[in-house]
Amino acid sequence: MFENFLRQIRLFGVFFSSFPIWNAVRTELSWTHYRIISRIDNPDHRIQYVNHAIEGNLLELIKFSMIQ
After folding, report:
1. Residue 13 to residues 5, 17, 20, 32, 35, Cα–Cα distance (Å)
2. Distances in whole angstroms, Cα of residue 15 to Cα of each of 8, 20
3. What string of DSSP letters covers 6-62?
4. Which domain of life is it from (predicted)?
């Protein structure tokens, strides 16, 4: 259980470093979306995948998550 807690803390850190302006986070997306998108190193690509997810083009997001 403690390992799960530490994993979540690490994921929060990755999220906040990927999206430092927290009030710019889109409410249309879930934590799961952001966990996947946070793993993208390139900020421009992150924005692109956020837009894909919001537009409902989740296939691109799923492809990325399977590659990682």
Report:
1. 13, 6, 10, 15, 11
2. 10, 8
3. HHHHHHHHHHHHH---GGGS-TTS-HHHHHHHTT---HHHHHHHHHHHHHT-HHHHH
4. Bacteria
Domain-wise residue ranges, the chain:
2-67
Residue written as tokens 């998550």?
Answer: 65
Answer yes or no: are the C-beta atoms of 27 and 54 closer than 8 Å.
no
> What is the per-residue pLDDT across 16-42, written as a single tens digit (0 to 9) for each?
999 988 788 888 888 888 888 888 889
pLDDT at 61: 64
